[in-house]
Amino acid sequence: MTNPPFRTEVQRLRQWCGDPTIEVEAVVAHLEPIRSRSSLLSSFAREASPSEPVRTAYAIRWLELGSGIAAAGVSRSRRRRVMRPVLRGRS
Questions:
Q1: 10 phi and psi, to 5 degrees?
Q2: C-alpha radius of gyration, the chain, whole number
Q3: Which residues contact 54 (CB under 8 A, 6 or more apart)?
Q4: pTM (two decimals)
Q5: How far apart are CA 8 and CA 17, in angstroms?
Q6: Is the separation of the CB atoms in 19 and 82 below 8 Å?
Q7: Residue 53 neighbours by CB under 8 Å, 6+ apart
Q8: pLDDT confidence band for 20 (50 / 70 / 90)
Q9: What is the predicted pLDDT for the residue at 13?
Q10: Are 24 and 83 in contact (CB under 8 A)?
Q11: Could you give the dihedral angle defined by the CA atoms of residues 52, 55, 61 and 67, in that order, rounded to the nearest 10 degrees?
Q12: Burial level of 56, CB count in 10 A (0-12/13-18/19+)?
């Protein structure tokens, strides 16, 4: 079975430009050791010029810290499954 032309073009674009979801997930993983919102704010203030994926990752971590997900022992893979539709613009 072949891919429709549009899907193929989207795949090529993602290969060329990178998938922003992957970058967001990578940054969130780097932010995982941060355990308080004040530390997260301090880290964000040190960012020179955060890109959209970096700002999105900080927002996700902010929400995790505020909701208690980060402290509740929820695995990283579970958080990714929950957040993936949000990152891709679906609810």
A1: -65, -45
A2: 15
A3: 23, 27, 47
A4: 0.62
A5: 14
A6: no
A7: 20, 23, 24, 27
A8: confident
A9: 57
A10: no
A11: -100
A12: buried
Neighbours of 15 (CB within 10 A): 9
Q: Average pLDDT, whole number, for the chain?
A: 75
Tokens of 11: 């795949």
- Highest-scoring range by mean pLDDT, 15-29, 46-60, 71-85: 46-60
Residue the block writes with tokens 């909701």: 67
Asked if residue 57 lies in contact with residue 27, where contact means CB atoms within 8 angstroms, the answer is yes
Residue 44: predicted pLDDT: 95
End-to-end CA distance of the chain: 29
Under the phi-then-psi rule, with left for phi > 0, alpha for psi from -120 to 50, and beta for the rest, what region is 86?
alpha
**Is the predicted pLDDT of residue 38 greater than 70, yes or no?**
yes
